[in-house]
Design a protein that fits this description.
By secondary structure, the chain is α+β, with helices and mostly antiparallel strands. The chain has one helix at 28-40; strands spanning 2-10, 12-13, 16-17, 20-25, 70-78. It has one domain (2-78).
Amino acid sequence: MKEQFELIYGFVHCRGRTTYSAGCVDKRAEAEAWIRNHRNGTAPKMKIHPGDPINYCKATSCPLKKQKPWFDMMTKKSLI
């Protein structure tokens, strides 16, 4: 079985937590570096997904409108 690592990110909102995929990589070290670089702010900022709740929250003083995204990875196994 071949192992891949899906790079995931999202935002925490007043309406819950969102999760998006940023693609897959074949090496754990590459996935860990992606996470570390984003958490440290050394990678370019992720664009907010068009369907993300931050784009349509009607609360003008919602404290979560300027939150920071979260970053992680998921291990995926394929039969190849």
